[in-house]
Every structure is written in C-alpha cells, then in structure tokens.
Amino acid sequence: MSVPPIRVVDLETTGSRPPAHGVCEIGWQDLELDAEGVWRIAKGRGAFLIDPGRDIPAITQAVHHIVDADVAGAPRWQDTAPDVLRRPGGFTALVAHRAAFEQQFCTPELTQGAAWICTWKCALRLWPDSPGFSNQVLRYWRQPVGLDRELGLPVHRAFPDAYVTAHHVRDMLAEASVEQLIEWSALPGLLPRVRQGEDRGTAFEELPTARLEELSRDRDGDVRYTARLHLERRGAGALPAPAVSRQTELF
Q1: Which end of the chain has fewer CB atoms at under 10 Å, N or C?
Q2: In Gene Ontology terms, what is one molecular function of this protein (predicted)?
C-alpha cells in the first residue's frame, strides 16, 4: 500500500481572524515518499485565487499585493477548499509554517481531521541555532538543496511560500519521523532564546532559576512552556500539562 502524500498549504487572507476575515488565495506543494523511503518534493502543486466575500484591506494588500479586482468572480472558500484539503486516501499530514494561522481557516470539517505539522515549531527544536525562524530566514540561512529561487518568489504569495515550506519539512523529515513532527506541532513552541525584554537573545538554558520562574508565569504560552520545561530539567518542579495548543483550540 502506498503512503499518502504530505501536502504543504499556505493561505493569503484579508486578515487574521475568521469569520471576520476570509481567504483570498491558497497554494500547495506536495511531498511523496520514494521507493527508498525518502520524502521528496513532488509534482503536485498549484494555487488559485478565492473571493473572500469582503473587501481586502489596504494593510493586507500591502503584504501580498492581491487586490479586490484580482479576486472578482473567483470561487468562494467553502466551495473550493475541499478540492485542496482532501483527497481519496487522505494525506499523511498537512503542513504549514506557523500552522495555527492556516488551521483557523482549514477546519477539521474541511480537512476531514487530517494531522498537521507546523514547520515553525519543528524548526525551533531541530535548528535552534538559526538567527530567526520565519519561513524566509530559514530559507536563506539553511539554503535547502534543490530550491528553485524563482519558484520561491514572490514572497507572501500562496504557492511560493508553500514551495519554500515544503523544502523545510522535507529536510526535517531527514532528521525526525512524521509522528515526531506531528507531536511537536501539537505542543507549544519550545523557544531557544528569550524574544523580548531585558534578557532578549539569551538562551533559556543560561537563565537563572529565579528568572525562569518569572517567565513560567508569562502571558505568552510558548514562553511559559519553555521556562517550565527548563525548570523541570533542573529539578525545580514538575512541568504542568501544557494548555491545549492554539492549533486545535482555534477551530
């Protein structure tokens, strides 16, 4: 029996909070498992524009450069999303960079409950020395083998971004199993360094225990999780069960 493909998806939208905001473009890039058991970039790929059912604000037009005239007459999300998010036999996983964003729009109803991999969360664990963890910083820092520069441009368009993300997850799958990536993706982000404040840029493992205790009560769930994990590793108390990931609670 053949292993179902992995599909990387990327959305361009009118904003970040459905149902007030809608999708105006979806792009995808597939990976397939070859005869040697190696995940490779596949020929399955594409993108199309979607009528979001509302005007596209200027502030988001300035990000992806999709304007109202571009989506006039395009299909609606609920009518077309299943064509991309489902297939006979399903997917081994759906993937996105900072997948919690895509999952707000790609609900379990539309995906038939497919498992998700978040390449942002997995990059934090596999490549903690990266100077940053955005899709594009990882692209230029790691320079994935075989990535066609032109296919990966322009940034902030659905297919080019999905294409770049596909190279990240391909390389991640050379270091960890699909199951491991899915498990990490369901947890809060494990941050390698403090992101803001007086300790900005300091590795969590270098922080004094008292500072970790402060950060364990931070408003940011990723910060709390990371601080509590380091406290546990020091024997400073058991790590409470993490709150349900936003990747599942935002549906």
Answers
A1: N
A2: nucleic acid binding
Residue of 209, 23, 189, 196 whose CA lies nearest to 97: 189
pTM of this prediction?
0.92
Q: How many CB atoms lie within 10 A of CB 244?
A: 12
Asked if the peptide bond before residue 19 counts as cis, ω within 30 degrees of 0, the response is: yes
CA distance 135 to 119: 8
Tokens 């955005």, residue located: 134
User: For 91-134, how does the pLDDT look when each residue is reduced to its tens digit (9 = 90+)?
Assistant: 999 999 999 999 999 999 999 999 999 999 999 999 999 999 99
d(CA 82, CA 163): 20
Q: Which residues lie below 8 Å from residue 224, measured CB to CB, with a gap of 6+?
A: 188, 215, 216, 217, 218
Domains of the chain: 6-186 (3.30.420.10), 204-244 (no CATH)
- Owner of token pair 């996105």: 96
User: Taken in order 142, 137, 91, 28, is the CA torsion positive or negative?
Assistant: negative
